[in-house]
Amino acid sequence: MQLTTQQIAFFQTHGFIAFPGLLKDRIEEIIREFHAIFKTRGGGHDGLPHDGSKRSCIVPFLDQSAVLCTLLDDPRIHGIAASLLGDDFNYMPSDGNFYSGDTGWHSDGWHRETMHLKIAFYLDPLTRDTGCLRVIPGSHRIGDKFADDLQAQLSKSGKLWNVEGRDVPAIALETNPGDILVFNHNTKHAAFGGSGYRRMFTMNLCQRYPEARVQELRDYLNGVSRFWVERAYGEIMMNTAGPDRFRHLEQVMANDGHIAELSRKAREAMAEPSRG
Ligand SMILES: O=C(O)CCC(=O)C(=O)O
Hints:
By secondary structure, this protein is α+β, with helices and mostly antiparallel strands. The chain has one domain (5-270): Jelly Rolls (Sandwich), CATH 2.60.120.620. 32% of the residues lie in helices and 20% in strands. Strands 1-10-7-12-5-4 form a 6-stranded antiparallel beta sheet. The longest helix is centred in the first third of the chain and has 14 residues, at 27-40. The protein is globular. Bound molecules: 2-oxoglutaric acid.
């Protein structure tokens, strides 16, 4: 599947695009695998069941299931990624979540040169006031006055505009399971009114980094050490990759050698008794 020129232009201008029902034919296996992965972690986070009080998050996520790994090979997902990022795009670490309550306004990154995007799979029917994703069109365009003003002001919307987060002008991307949402990491997004059990997982993807700027990719990958992992990808993702998938793993695999040491340090820092 290739996106049309109009779809690509829409994404570039607005910073997001929705594909209602795109993966409806796979939703049963997707939901089954989502729960199977959480079951291996006790149902939530840190070996405990998710109790709805705070977000439970697993990173990397879809890498833990051979079935979910094939989403990267699925011509519909592959086509979206290749159309927006180029044929040599990188797959990046994914996350699986039980979200709990509101998520305030934020960007996932603030990338000037290399485009990063997120594909979000929401596994429950969600409306504007029950936790669907909201996005602010155009907020991804670094250097544009509107986007830069939002970047500086949005987190203080109550004080600066007398407007609380849920009332900030935005598009509510109401979804049903099987719908796919895609947004630029720079795009401001949030969710309000969700329950304590909102199921969602993501695939992150980016343009291939030019060799001269590959240190930026390494720096980006530092973030996964918070999850105490040895590598950016899970074993299943790497071990079940054919040559077509490997093309989208190879740059990260060549640049994630520092993560194990960072993870070790993060684990040790947690284990240290607090001083004071
Ligand atoms: O659905 C949500 O609560 C927010 C999702 C989000 O912020 C993200 O995936 O970056």
